Amino acid sequence: MVKSFEERRAHLKDLSDEELKERFWQLTEKVVDPLLKLGYENTTSAIERSVLLRMGFSSLEVKAIVDGAIERGLLGHGAGNIVYRLSQAKGIPVRDAGLGLVDGTMWDEACGLF
């Protein structure tokens, strides 16, 4: 049975405008919080490719790095983060670290960082 508008708003009718506004934001947070959590805790290969492209790698280099990260279960750490941390650990430029991953010579070291 479909409820009338009056029946559906009964629990809200005695609230002031300020209380309605507060209720709205509480409900909005309940909807948005899980989405934010997903965004903070998960990534996709498309996002990681985009990050690497902005770091100056070519699309072919990006594909090799992201595929390598997926194969090794490291994508959740972020492909750009993998390259950056590897460059910091080895004391080499970011580009060189990424190219080391592209040619496959630095994956063991990268895996050891995580």
Describe the protein's topology.
Layout: H1 5-8, H2 17-41, H3 45-54, H4 59-71, H5 79-90, H6 94-102, H7 107-112
Helix pairs in contact: 3-4, 4-6, 5-6
How would you describe what is shown here?
By secondary structure, this protein is mainly α. 69% of the residues lie in helices and 0% in strands. The protein contains seven helices and no strands. The protein is rod-shaped. The mean pLDDT is 92.
Tally of contiguous helical segments: 7
Regarding quaternary structure, what we see is single chain
Mean pLDDT: 92
Strand content: under 5%
- End-to-end CA span: 56 Å
**Percent in helix:** 55-70%
Q: Give me the count of strands.
A: 0
Structural class: mainly alpha
Question: What is the helix/strand order?
Answer: HHHHHHH
